[in-house]
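Fold it.
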Amino acid sequence: MSMKMSRFAALTSSLLLAAGTALFGAGQASAAADFGYVALGDSYSSGLGAGNYDGTSGNCKRTNRAYPALWAAAHSPQTFSFTACSGARTGDVLSGQLGPLNSGTDLVSITIGGNDAGFSDVMTTCVLQSEATCVSRVNQAKAYVDTTLPGRLDQVYSAIDSRAPAARVVVLGYPRFYKLNGTCTAGLTEGERAAINGAADHLNAAIAKRAADHGFTFASVAGTFTGHEICSGSPWLHSVNWLNIAESYHPTAAGQSGGYLPVLTNAA
C-alpha cells in the first residue's frame, strides 16, 4: 500500500510538474506575443544611406534595411513602431516621435544628438574649406556638445522614461568615420580626418554619460565599424556622394546590418 501510494504521489507530482511547465511555457509565449518595440531617432536609425526607402515615409527616409526594421523582422514583436526620421534633432523627437510610447512598450532604440551638434555643417565645412577652418568648426561642435547638448538629451531621455517607464532603452552611438592612414589618396587631410574622428568620440562620450545617468543602455558601434570606416578596404559608410549628397557619411545597407544590428541585438 505504501509503495502504491508512493508511486501515485510520484505520478501525481510528475503530472502537476508537466502541467505547470506547460502553463509557464504558455505564459512565456504570451509575454513574447505582447512585446512592443519603438524605434526613435535620426537618419542613422531611419536608414538614410541604405536605400530602398519607404515612399510613405517621405523625407524621413525610413527603410526596411535599417537596423530597427531588421531587428523587428528577426524577432517579430507584436508591435513595432518606426518613427525615426532623417534630419531629426532632439526637439523633433520630442515633438513628433514619442506618440507610440506607452506603459506596455518593452524596448526603445534611439540615435540622436548628431544633428543638434551640427554634424552636416561640420562635414560640409571640412570638405569645402581649409584644414584650419575644419578643425575650428569641429571644436565649435565639441563646445556645443559640452555645454548645450546634455540638457537637450536629458529632455528626450526623461520624456521616454515618463511615457515608457517599463521599457529597456538602448541608446546607440555613432561610428568613427575614417580609418587613419588608410587607402584614401585624395580628399580630406589626415588632420581633418583625425579631428572628425575625435569629434565622434567626444559626442559618443557625452551621449553615453547622459544615457547612463537615466539608467539607459549605451551601445557603442565603434567596434563593429572598425575596419569598415571610410578609407578602409571595406567601408560601411558612404564618403562624399555628389550625386546624392544627403547619403554622404551615412551607413550603407551593410553598415546597418553588420554595424548597427548586432549591437542592438546584444544590448536588447
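The first strand starts at residue 36 and ends at 41.
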